[in-house]
Amino acid sequence: MQTIKGASAHLALAPTRKFLQSDAGSHPSHSILFPICKRVSLLWSSGNRRSKMQQGVAKTAAAAASTFENGSDVGKNASYLTDPAELIKSVETFIFDCDGVIWKGDTLIDGVPKTLELLRSLGKRLVFVTNNSTKSRKQYGKKFETLGLTISEEEIFASSFAAAAYLKSIQFPLEKKVYVIGEVGIQKELEQAGISYLGGPVCLKKCGFSDLPTAFML
User: Fold this and answer.
1) The domain spanning residue 49 has which CATH number?
2) Per-residue pLDDT tens for 135-152?
3) Which residue ranges of the chain lie beneath pLDDT 70?
4) Which tens digits make up the pLDDT trace of 17-39?
5) Catalytic: 92?
6) Which site among 93, 151, 201, 202 is 20 to 30 Å from 59 CA-CA?
7) Each residue of 5-34: b (16+ CB within 10 Å) or e?
8) Distance in angstroms between the alpha carbons of the first and the last residue of the chain
9) How many folded domains does the chain comprise?
10) Contacts of 51 (CB under 8 A, 6+ apart)
11) Which of 86, 92, 117, 191 is catalytic?
């Protein structure tokens, strides 16, 4: 088994190390991670058109949601990670944040291509997530491409896509419209989902929301 070296490995593994040392049942991120895991599990576990990758992510998310919900103490006595190869061997799906992990602004972070290439060569599923709603999955796919990375659209889970997917999951009436307080990425995902909308970037400026952090623009 090969090992991952360099800054990318630290970025990818440090959050895992930090979480494993905490009490999963009382960790501050519990209230945030549980509903996210639950929603991803529901969105990507149903329907015959879900890909194997999406079903795998749904399975992983369901397991994480179950851990949080049941107050498991899995992380109480966990030690620091000393063998990255063993962790890689034991995990089927790797979920990467984008900004600050894959890229910084418009610059690819050193070591990322080799890291992703290694994980793919080992048959691992890769998923790229972001809470930045300024772009759709298709637009993020183009950004990956400009950075020299080949990432499929279904490997990208952006908040813009999550918003549209959620509305589809609750069978939002197609004769109604959604009022978007957010960026063009949400609009494009809604269009792809066949959902009509009002608002968008123009509304942000008119309503005085243009200076809000992107994370609040859902």
Assistant:
1) 3.40.50
2) 999 999 999 999 999 999
3) 1-78, 204-218
4) 333 334 444 444 444 444 555 55
5) yes
6) 151
7) eeebbebbeeeebeebeeebbebeebeebb
8) 41
9) 1
10) 154
11) 92
